[in-house]
Write a structure and sequence with these properties.
Structural class: alpha/beta
Helix content: 25-40%
CATH topology of the largest domain: Rossmann fold
Oligomer: single chain
CATH class of the largest domain: Alpha Beta
Radius of gyration: 23 Å
Strand order of the largest sheet: 3-4-5-2-1-6-7-11-12
Distance between the termini: 14 Å
CATH architecture of the largest domain: 3-Layer(aba) Sandwich
Number of strands: 18
CATH superfamily of the largest domain: Glycogen Phosphorylase B
Number of domains: 2
Shape: elongated
Strand content: 15-25%
């Protein structure tokens, strides 16, 4: 049994802004089920919602500050969560990274430096908790100083640093570094110094014993200038200590056989029942209720990274084909306006819902025939996993986790019963249009389509599968 300190700036369902929270709320549960002694550590934000008892566990004096460590549990589990209680830094409104007005916290460097210092105290059994870690598993830039600080400690735990998205790095000025009272020996190009600035994420990448990211293909992509954001050389230098492990999905929340958010449950052996969800989806989006017309769904932030401009160009070209398109999302106002305009021009083909609604997200996954994810980059991605689980065949670009989890429908993969979706390579509207046309043509072949749906629904995207890979890694350190 390993003692694992899992360090994350957000954890679902306590507080979530993105996919990191889903990982931090699911992977520790699966590791606990595999018999590991795991503790989660996160800040005690003012916005956290609890449904378990919270009590003070200890008090620490670090860097002229008095902080408390609170203890609670992940909802509906025995997994212990330790919370850094320091209201001056974490008690305000807003989310972990921005204030209530959407501006980055001006003291972000101070906040997460304190978070990392306390994580080190816990890992080294200096936090009056009577617990010392064998592994400190850190996630994204907010915990990047933990491997750097632990490297200076005797008898330290092994460290793992997981990159969820290289685009966010936690870079601050040299002046900020000097104000943080960090060990001066960390200020060099082997540790956290990055072009005369300090980089939290570089601390994790340079100093952790092992680096993981959230898909094998993304682990290769971040070693290139296009995806490495200036750290591709260091990542390539450490390629022997770098690998990708696909995120899992919460099968309690995302299973067509048990989903309470959809009108009709179904399975790979009861695919006919999926049509009830399709009709409900068409009705919700005010589209003609016709089970023979393929429905393409998309749930996304409307930003350039997600390939939304490709989607708009594609829709303008395929609108005369037999198909319907539904979208749930928000983001760039220009994209929102162009999409709404298309829906006004083609009300019987295109329907747009600006915003986010969890029930509607489940209905789209269950009711659509195809799911669109033409991302320019995607470290892991979740919707393509949900879609396969629901027999809703994904159309994806070959990048990151999309490349690792969707098998293109080609003659060989159809014959081998391994096809699970449709894949294109070039980030162009033309490539997307051709792939959508290919999918629409195949939809007419009901027998082949059903087989591909069954292939997709059989795939194992459980967290247990991912947790076993992490546990194997921990044992090598």
């Amino acid at each position: 049994m390993k003692k694992i300190l899992f360090v994350s700036s957000e954890v679902h369902p306590l507080l979530k802004t993105g996919g990191l929270a889903d990982v931090a709320g699911s992977l520790p549960l699966s590791l606990a089920e595999l018999g590991q002694d795991i503790r989660i550590f996160m800040p005690n934000y003012g916005a956290i919602t609890y449904n378990q008892e919270v009590h003070k566990k200890s008090t620490l004096h670090v860097d002229n500050r008095t902080v408390h460590i609170l203890e609670t549990r992940l909802p509906n589990s025995d997994v212990i969560v330790w919370l850094l209680d320091y209201p001056d830094f974490f008690g305000g409104h807003g989310n972990p990274y921005t204030d209530e007005y959407g501006h980055a916290w001006i003291n972000s460097a101070e906040r997460f430096t304190l978070f990392c210092r306390i994580a080190v105290e816990i890992a080294q059994n200096r936090a009056n908790l009577d617990w010392q870690a064998d592994i400190a598993h850190c996630n994204d830039w907010q915990s990047g100083l933990v491997p750097a600080l632990l490297r200076l400690e005797p008898n330290r735990p092994a460290t793992v640093f997981t990159i969820h998205n290289m685009a966010y790095q936690g870079v601050f000025s040299q002046e900020t570094f000097q104000q943080l009272n960090l060990p001066s020996e960390l200020w060099n190009h082997h540790d956290i110094e990055f072009y005369n600035s300090m980089s939290f994420i570089k601390g994790g990448i340079a100093c952790a014993d092992h680096i993981t990211t959230v898909s094998p293909t993304y682990a290769l992509e971040i070693q290139t200038p296009e995806f490495g954001y200036g750290l591709n050389g260091l990542l390539h230098h450490r390629h022997n200590e770098l690998n990708g492990i696909i995120n899992g999905i919460d099968l309690d929340q995302w299973s067509p056989e048990t989903d309470t958010r959809i009108p009709q449950t179904y399975s790979a052996t009861r695919l006919g029942s999926k049509l009830i969800n399709k009709k409900a989806l068409q009705k919700h989006f005010s589209l003609p209720e016709n089970e023979t017309i393929p429905v393409i769904g998309l749930i996304s932030r409307l930003v350039e990274q997600k390939g939304i401009d490709l989607v708009i160009d594609c829709l303008e070209s395929i609108v005369d084909y037999p198909m319907q398109f539904v979208l749930l999302g928000n983001g760039d106002k220009g994209f929102e306006h162009r999409l709404k305009n298309l829906s006004y021009l083609h009300p019987d083909k295109i329907s747009i819902n600006i915003g986010y609604d969890e029930d509607l997200a489940h209905l789209i996954e269950a009711g659509a025939d195809l799911f669109l994810m033409p991302s320019l980059f995607e470290p892991c991605g979740l919707n393509q996993l949900y879609s396969q689980r629901y027999g809703t065949l994904p159309i994806v670009r070959y990048t990151g986790g999309l490349a690792d989890t969707v098998v293109d429908t080609l003659p060989d993969s159809i014959t081998a019963h391994t096809a699970t979706g449709f894949v294109f390579h070039e980030a162009t509207a033309g490539a997307l249009i051709e792939t959508v046309k290919r999918a629409l043509l195949l939809y007419a072949n009901t027998k082949v389509w059903r087989q591909i749906q069954k292939n997709a629904m059989k795939k194992d995207f459980s967290w247990q599968n991912s947790a076993e890979q992490y546990l194997t890694l921990y044992k090598t350190l």
